[in-house]
Write a structure and sequence with these properties.
The complex is a heterodimer of chains A (387) and B (224). In chain A, β6 and β7 form a beta hairpin. In chain A, strands 1, 2, 3, 4, 5, 6, 7, 8, 9 and 10 form a ten-stranded mixed beta sheet that branches. Chain A contains 14 helices and ten strands. Chain A has 387 residues and is α+β, with helices and mostly antiparallel strands. Chain A is elongated, with a radius of gyration of 30 Å. Chain A folds into two domains: 187 residues, no CATH class; 168 residues, no CATH class. The longest helix of chain A is centred in the middle third of the chain and has 44 residues. Chain B has 224 residues and is α/β, with parallel strands linked by helices. Chain B has a single domain, classed as P-loop containing nucleotide triphosphate hydrolases (Rossmann fold). In chain B, 34% of the residues lie in helices and 29% in strands. Chain B contains seven helices and ten strands. The longest helix of chain B has 16 residues. Chain B is globular. The chains are: A alpha+beta (387), B alpha/beta (224). The interface between A and B is medium-sized, with 26 and 31 residues.
């Protein structure tokens, strides 16, 4: 017999209580890990989308905040109030490649989908897309739809099929090769068609810009502002403000999870305090057999720690499973759509796993201090005369 | 075999519960010889169990002194007292007090575990001890699968685990039928003949009849 074996026997003797206490800490740690995993994939997805956008600068409506910048990355619907004249005056500045986008949403078979109005030729050059099947737009105002690879799969569309957008039947021209980014889940229309269907005159939502000489970026920002009065952000600024929003959301979610873990800690305290009452006699026997106070204290601390480690392991497994299973079902929402887009790219490294288990063990051990102290404080006579 | 192994000098014990204090033992001076078979008898509530707690190192006197094997225990550290209980004294209680979640052999092993005996040695010695009390074939049984007499024999095997000088028992046959009681008493007799000091707190005439010496406790005093 060893102290460790005694601990396992003590804990597993009351199976129901063991399972319920364990469930408490498991759920707490699982939600913690789920949020951490989702937050992790959200963050990596934002980096990926920013890179996929391929722009050094983004022109957005004046007075836009971080949310609009986030919408560019998530493919959310955006206001369309940048006029054709404004785009023209930006294009008049030398050394810039300017590509306007009309960001809209529609539904196919009651499922929401991102629609992007583009200048076909300019965008193809800018994004360096490959066409996997069918054809790309032949003219800049061609009536038809080009689909991202993911959207084609989702709606089971092939070239030559027909798709109805805003009541208008449109032929599917072609399907793009996988890009790994948001474009995969998008329907592309030529800009004039999109503007007509979504009644946005000759306006667009935002423009992506690549500068020829990166050293002059600051100067270009100023020039565009003076020429148009629109908001201009660099890719780095955009990344920073979007990560800021996501970070706030992440911290909020993790705080909620921390509350769950805290509640579980009180579950452990409750179980262990109940155990000190129930096992008073047993503690007395151990003392009569020569157990020191330190031994009794250690015994109870180990029991609490055991809950923490086992709960941590099951929590991590449960959390990762939840993240993998739940992610595809998360509804369209600016904050979560990226996670959905990231598919199975759940980002959890060994550090998160080890950290969560350690966290769980520490919480449990801290929760065990009071019950262990109570148990160790009993005098042998007190414990042994207890009926 | 005439060394004094347990000695009390004017030992007294007062329990304070809030404002009320109860004197359980008033002034007890006694000597118990090594290798003797002693019974402590007396009416309920007169201090028998308190006396047993004091001479077993489970409690300390509020006044006076208690010596076990020449060591004065009322002032020593808790951890030293625990070690003393673990190595020099074997306890057996009325309600068997086995750990319910453990098997018979594990109950015996745990006493050795607390004394720091290596695991492999624990198993070997526990098997020997269970054989000695006639329960070799019940080693894997849980307490709930054993009769009262069998449980008490496991408790005796556990008390013997660290080869103590003294066996201290509180009503060891109080919950047993006469046949089981006789078996336990025969076992104690054998242990006594092998040199153990046996001290039993009891109400039973059957038990006290076997004693070499009887100490009567009445009103917190030893009646002479």
């Amino acid at each position: 017999m060893t102290l460790a074996k005694l601990v396992v026997k003590n804990i597993t003797r009351r199976r129901g209580r063991f399972v319920f206490t364990l469930l408490g800490i498991t759920i707490g740690i699982a939600s913690f890990v789920t949020f951490l995993a989702m937050g992790g994939s959200l963050k990596s997805e934002i980096y990926r989308e920013t890179a996929a956008l391929g722009a050094n600068l983004v022109v957005i409506p004046k007075g836009s905040c971080g949310y609009e910048q986030l919408s560019i990355l998530t493919g959310d619907q955006m206001p369309t109030n940048i006029s054709a004249e404004e785009i023209a005056s930006i294009r008049a500045i030398r050394g810039l490649t300017v590509v306007p986008f009309l960001a809209q949403q529609t539904a196919i078979n009651n499922r929401p989908v991102t629609v992007s109005g583009i200048e076909p030729a300019a965008t193809l050059a800018f994004k360096r897309w490959q066409v996997a099947r069918g054809a790309y737009f032949a003219r800049d105002d061609e009536n038809g739809v080009v689909l991202g690879a993911g959207a084609a799969r989702q709606f089971e569309l092939q070239p030559d099929a027909t798709v109805t957008i805003r009541g208008e039947k449109l032929p599917v021209l072609g399907i793009l090769a996988e890009t790994g980014g948001r474009d995969d889940a998008t329907l592309f229309l030529s800009l004039p068609l999109a503007q007509r269907l979504f009644k946005s005159a000759d306006n667009v939502s935002y423009a992506a810009i690549r500068v020829d000489n990166l050293a002059l970026t600051e100067g270009y920002i100023e020039q565009i502002r003076v020429a148009t009065g629109l908001g201009v952000v660099s890719d780095k600024q955009m990344l920073k403000s979007v990560l800021g929003i996501v970070g706030t959301v992440n911290i909020t979610l993790q705080l909620i999870a921390a509350v769950a873990v805290l509640a579980a800690a009180f579950g452990i305290i409750n179980t262990m305090v109940a155990a000190t009452y129930e096992r008073k006699r047993e503690i007395g026997i151990l003392q009569a057999l020569g157990a020191r106070r330190r031994t009794i204290f250690t015994l109870f601390m180990l029991e609490a720690g055991f809950y923490g480690v086992i709960g941590g392991v099951t929590g991590v497994i449960g959390g990762l499973a939840t993240a993998v299973i739940a992610t595809p079902y998360i509804s369209q929402n600016a904050f979560t759509t990226l996670v959905k887009g990231s598919g199975n790219g759940t980002l959890v490294d060994a550090k998160v796993i080890a950290g969560s288990i350690l966290f769980s063990a520490i919480v449990a051990v801290v929760a065990g201090i009071y019950p262990a102290w109570r148990a160790a404080r009993l005098t042998p006579v007190e414990a042994i005369s207890y009926e | 075999m005439s060394d004094v192994i347990i000695r009390t000098e004017h030992a007294a014990k007062t329990y304070a519960t809030g404002a009320v204090s109860t004197t359980a033992l008033k002034d007890v001076s006694l000597e118990i010889l090594q290798g003797s078979f002693t019974c402590i008898v007396g009416p309920s509530g007169h201090g028998k169990s308190t006396l047993m707690h004091l001479i077993g190192g489970l409690d300390r006197p509020t006044d006076g002194k208690v010596y076990i094997g020449g060591m004065e225990i009322s002032g020593i550290a808790n951890s030293d007292l625990a070690r003393l209980r673990g190595t020099r004294i074997g306890f057996v209680f009325q309600f068997f007090n086995l750990l319910q979640g453990l098997t018979a052999i594990e109950n015996v092993e745990i006493a050795m575990m607390l004394a720091g005996v290596p695991e492999r040695e624990q198993r070997v010695r526990a098997e020997e001890l269970l054989a000695r009390v006639g329960l070799a074939e019940k080693a894997g049984s849980k307490p709930s699968q054993l009769s009262g007499g069998q449980q008490q024999r496991v408790a005796i095997a556990r008390a013997l685990a660290n080869d103590p000088d003294i066996l201290l028992m509180d009503e060891p046959t109080g919950n047993l039928d006469s046949q089981a009681e006789a078996e336990i008493l025969d076992l104690l007799q054998t242990l006594h003949s092998q040199g153990k000091t046996v001290v039993i707190v009891t109400h039973s005439d059957e038990v006290s009849r076997r004693a070499e010496r009887i100490i009567r406790v009445r009103d917190g005093l030893v009646a002479h």
